UniProtKB/TrEMBL annotation:
Basic residues composition-biased segments: 1-14
Organism for this UniProt entry: Novipirellula herctigrandis
Official protein name in the record: GIY-YIG domain-containing protein
GIY-YIG domain ranges (all copies): 249-335
Superkingdom of origin: Bacteria
Length: 337
């Protein structure tokens, strides 16, 4: 019979086998989750071929030309036009924004000389300069009035439309709301989802989503763009485009949507072929049932089309992108990654 002494040897003099410190099930689970989370991030980094130390910084919302405005001119024009509302409210309301731009143009000698005030860039730069002034704490005008509240039903529409515009042009929310061209595009995308939705309500909802931090770009898109092109269709438009062979037969990701959010996100090596399958007899039971129902006419489809020679030609890359979209868009009929 052998026993153990204080030196860690048994009585026969042989060293005892070392034993690892026992882990509880809870500790083991936490360690495994940490390892898996790290592995997921590492895989995404490898897939897009980017070093984590050299992730590209998103383009700044504030154009350098926005700095050409005098702070006093901005403040005076804002005081005269805002009617007690905030700078955000001025930007999204036509009846406040237009007088502000007109007053600022009169005070801005450079704009008068070049007639730049008639250009969309003048309005964009002026509004971005106003926001920059507010964020720096130098807009010394207190808001005394609040804007209208927005029904919660508008928020999903605003999220879908805003993501399309910001993803398509790789711009921030401030630029989208300040630039007349992008602001108009936001309204167009929102009306594709609900033709009756109010422009002001959509813009107001975008501001609300920004405060909730609900419109952050996907991790994959911060690393690489892959030359994607974003297009949107109603179901009928998509059917017509498929019949006319206008939908890409290359790789991509697609999102089925309705006015209260996303239905399904998927990826495909051949977009046209995969979408045809979904519209004829989808192999996704929940989606097939929805598309065959009375509400199918309200469905819109968003396509993220990639060049054939892009990294998205690899299924692992498309699935990484698809996984990020599922995580951020929370579609109704997908299984969470």
């Amino acid at each position: 019979m052998t026993g153990k002494n204080r030196m860690g040897k048994n009585r026969k003099g042989t060293a005892k086998a070392s034993r690892p410190w026992p882990l509880s099930k809870r500790s083991l689970s936490k360690n495994l989750l940490a390892i898996l989370s790290f592995a997921k991030v590492a895989v995404v980094g490898v897939l897009v071929g980017a070093s984590w130390t050299s992730i590209a910084v998103a383009e700044s919302d504030v154009d350098s030309s926005a700095n050409s405005f005098e702070a006093m001119d901005l403040i005076e024009a804002f005081k005269a036009s805002s009617e007690g509302y905030s700078s955000d409210e001025l930007i999204i309301r036509d009846d406040l924004r237009e007088p502000f731009i007109a007053r600022l143009a009169k005070r801005n000698a450079q704009a008068q000389q070049s007639e730049e005030a008639k250009n969309d860039h003048f309005e964009r730069d002026a509004l971005l300069a106003l926001l920059q002034l507010r964020k720096s704490g130098k807009l010394s005008v207190r808001s005394t009035r609040r804007g209208q509240s927005v029904d919660e039903s508008v928020y999903p529409i605003a999220e879908i439309a805003a993501r399309v515009v910001t993803d398509r042009h790789r711009i921030g929310l401030d630029t989208m709301l300040a630039d007349p061209v992008y602001r108009s595009e936001l309204s167009q995308e929102a009306k594709k989802i609900d033709a009756e939705v109010d422009d002001y309500a959509v813009r107001k909802a975008v501001l609300g989503l920004r405060k909730r931090r609900a419109l952050k770009p996907e991790l994959v898109l911060r690393v690489a763009d892959w030359g994607r092109e974003i297009k949107t269709y109603s179901i009928e438009q998509l059917k017509g485009a498929l019949d006319a062979s206008e939908i890409s037969t290359g790789p991509g990701v697609y999102l089925f949507r309705v006015s209260d959010g996303y239905l399904y996100v998927g990826e495909a090596k051949n977009l046209a072929e995969r979408l045809t399958t979904h519209l004829t007899e989808s192999d996704r039971e929940s989606l097939a049932e929805f598309l065959s129902g009375d509400a199918s006419g309200a469905v819109t489809v968003e396509l993220h089309v990639f060049p054939r020679d892009s990294p998205a030609s690899k299924v692992t890359v498309r699935r990484a992108y698809e996984s990020e979209l599922i995580r951020s868009r929370n579609p109704r009929f997908n299984v969470r990654p």
